[in-house]
Amino acid sequence: MSVPEDIAVIGFDDIPIAMYTDPPLTTVRVNKKQWGKEAAKRLLDVIEKKTPEDAKQAMVEFINRRSL
Questions:
Q1: Residue 36 lies in a domain
Q2: pLDDT-based confidence at 16, cuts 50/70/90?
Q3: pTM as predicted
Q4: Which domain holds residue 54?
Q5: Rounded Cα gap, residues 26 and 2, in angstroms
Q6: Where would you tag: which of 18, 43, 45, 54 has the fewest CB atoms within 10 A of its CB?
Q7: Kind of pairing, strands 10-12 and 26-30?
Q8: For the segment 38-57, what is each residue's pLDDT rounded down to a tens digit?
Q9: What stretch of H or E contains 46?
């Protein structure tokens, strides 16, 4: 089988080597710092018995390379 002709491959976390594979790996990039901030905020909301607000920023990004 060959990528992307026969099968699509998608990674997660956009590690640096993903762009150097052959073909370059399509991936989902996550904003770990934003995830941590959002998790802490929601935890504090639960502790303080507040209704959590909806997340205001996208915390994932689709990076379309050639493996899809």
A1: yes
A2: confident
A3: 0.57
A4: 10-63
A5: 15
A6: 54
A7: parallel
A8: 889 888 888 988 876 665 55
A9: helix 32-47
Question: What are the DSSP calls for 29-42, one per residue?
Answer: EE-HHHHHHHHHHH
Tell whether omega for the bond before 4 is within 30 degrees of 0, i.e. cis.
yes
Q: What is the pLDDT of residue 59?
A: 73
Tally of domains in the chain:
1
Half-sphere exposure of 63 (CA within 13 A, CB side): 18
Torsion of CA 19, 20, 21, 26, to 10 degrees: 10
Give me the mean pLDDT over the 31-41 stretch: 87
Q: Look at residue 19 and tell me if it is in a domain.
A: yes
Torsion of CA 46, 38, 33, 66, to 10 degrees: 130
Question: Is 43 contained in some domain?
Answer: yes
Question: What pLDDT, on the 0 to 100 scale, is given for residue 58?
Answer: 61
